[in-house]
Amino acid sequence: MGYEGPLQKKKINSLLGCHNLRFIRFKYLIEGLFLISMGEAPAFFADNLLGDIPKEVDSKSKGNETAITVGSKIYVIDGVDHESGSTIGVRILDKSSREWINPIVLGTKPKSSKHHSAVLLNDDCVLVVRGNSTSSECFWFLEVGTPFVREHEKTLGNEVVAWSKGVLGNVEKPIVISGPSGVGKGTLISELMKEFPSMFGFSVSHTTRAPREKEQDGIHYHFTDRNVMEREIKDGKFLEFASVHGNLYGTSVEAVEVVADAGKRCILDIDVQGARSVRASALDAIFIFISPPSFEELEKRLRARATETEEQIQKRLRNARAELEQGKSSGLFDHILVNDDLETCYEKLKSILCLREGVKSARDTFPELVDLSIEHPVSKIDQKLLINCTAAEHETTSNNMYALDLSLRKGGAPGRTRGLNMYAINPLTDDVNGDNRLSLHHTS
Ligand SMILES: Nc1ncnc2c1ncn2[C@@H]1O[C@H](COP(=O)(O)OP(=O)(O)OP(=O)(O)O)[C@@H](O)[C@H]1O
Ligand SMILES: Nc1nc2c(ncn2[C@@H]2O[C@H](COP(=O)(O)O)[C@@H](O)[C@H]2O)c(=O)[nH]1
């Protein structure tokens, strides 16, 4: 079904809330179908049909630009920032004075993009979808009037906009696993990561201890010099750190962010001092203490692992006594698990984390590569965006239509915007329900 009437065209443009100046011509095959069935006012009524956009925008447009009107201002988002060349640029046109403003741009800017699409959300934030990008680099929020932006406008005395990277996946609380050396923390974590590779990500700590034979830098630890690590601690790069068995160990803020950016749940393997620091931090986590069935068994495991000298083993065992005391009695931990039989302990760990065999991460349904359809890339309905794209690797539907659900969106500048969910939909079946409003259902 196609529809090209002027009223419908206006409504579609309004709904999109933007003008892609280059690709302004739409075929309304799918949008038309949705819009006709919507029966409700779109969240954003644009007063900015192409004809209404002041000439300045047109004349200033350099190819891949998108203009969005918010109140008395038009935000022009340029796929290539003509100053930096490597990022997406933003300029503002004041509609009344017809003057161009170069705002102060806060946050990490998205990399330049050959084509993109933009949609206004809640009058204070623009969602920019980058074409031909991985799903982790695809969604960016340009905050134009949020409290964060307003606050900085006051202090900086200038027009401000702020970028916040959108992260797919409803990332759950990180998991802190502690316990004495040799109890089996690493073994349990490896099992989890093996069984649920797309769900969990390991927080790679920094340490000043020397690597063991099979340990790789950047995978098991970031092996580092004490001087460097001490300086980085001073610079505030660490969420927590502690002196453990004579060496410095620490979790950098980045180590946890990287996992969350990948849409995975972060697992931290840290000692009890570190767990206490994390508890006192802003990171809301689940704390699990692993205890050995007996001290003798702990010693047996440490010796059997054969990774430490006798002197180091003695030191670790001495520290283990104190750790066991603190772990069991401090009230710091939400769960205490005895690692006697490995399989039994692993099953208990999974039940604490509410895991079943074959459970997939919501992320498994995301397209690997998001490539926007130029003709009708993005439209918005309530808290859902319909994205028409080419999904190179996961061809879950023949039409490549995806829904991006923003209803659980949280965070924002200066940090990431999290809680985005994306799934494939079939526009021919997942559309209208009884009250004539669009409802979307998962097709995967
Ligand atoms: N339930 C178990 N029964 C017997 N051996 C076990 C069990 N769990 C782990 N092990 C073994 O105990 C040794 C120590 O385990 P692991 O390295 O996982 O301990 P860890 O708590 O991570 O130690 P560290 O804190 O020093 O890194 C390993 O050789 C491992 O194979
Ligand atoms: N406080 C922190 N403790 C950490 C961190 N990374 C590891 N650890 C703990 O150190 C001991 C010894 O580990 P090993 O690899 O040398 O055997 C162990 O209890 C780990 O849990 C960290 O970032 N912070």
Please report which band the strand proportion falls in: under 5%, 5-15%, 15-25%, 25-35%, 35-45% or over 45%. 25-35%
- Basic shape: elongated
What is the overall pLDDT average? 79
Distance between the termini: 25 Å
How many DSSP H or I helices?
Answer: 11
Uncertain segments? 1-52, 54-62, 393-397, 432-444
Bound molecules: adenosine-5'-triphosphate, the ligand Nc1nc2c(ncn2[C@@H]2O[C@H](COP(=O)(O)O)[C@@H](O)[C@H]2O)c(=O)[nH]1
The helix content is 25-40%
Number of strands: 26
Q: Name the structural class.
A: alpha+beta
Question: What does this entry show, briefly?
Answer:
26% of the residues lie in helices and 28% in strands.
Annotate the secondary structure layout:
Layout: H1 6-16, E1 19-20, H2 29-38, H3 55-60, E2 65-70, E3 73-78, E4 89-94, E5 99-101, E6 104-106, E7 116-121, E8 125-130, E9 133-134, E10 139-143, H4 147-156, E11 160-168, E12 175-178, H5 185-195, E13 200-202, E14 206-207, E15 222-223, H6 226-234, E16 238-244, E17 247-252, H7 253-261, E18 265-269, H8 272-280, E19 286-291, H9 295-305, H10 310-329, E20 335-338, H11 342-352, E21 369-372, E22 378-381, E23 384-391, E24 401-405, E25 410-411, E26 417-425
Parallel strand pairs: 6-11, 11-26, 12-18, 12-19, 13-18, 14-15, 19-20
Antiparallel strand pairs: 1-2, 2-3, 3-4, 4-5, 7-8, 8-10, 9-21, 10-11, 14-17, 16-17, 21-23, 22-23, 23-24, 24-26, 25-26
The ligand Nc1nc2c(ncn2[C@@H]2O[C@H](COP(=O)(O)O)[C@@H](O)[C@H]2O)c(=O)[nH]1 is lined by residues 181, 185, 205, 209, 240, 242, 244-245, 249-251, 269-271, 273-274.
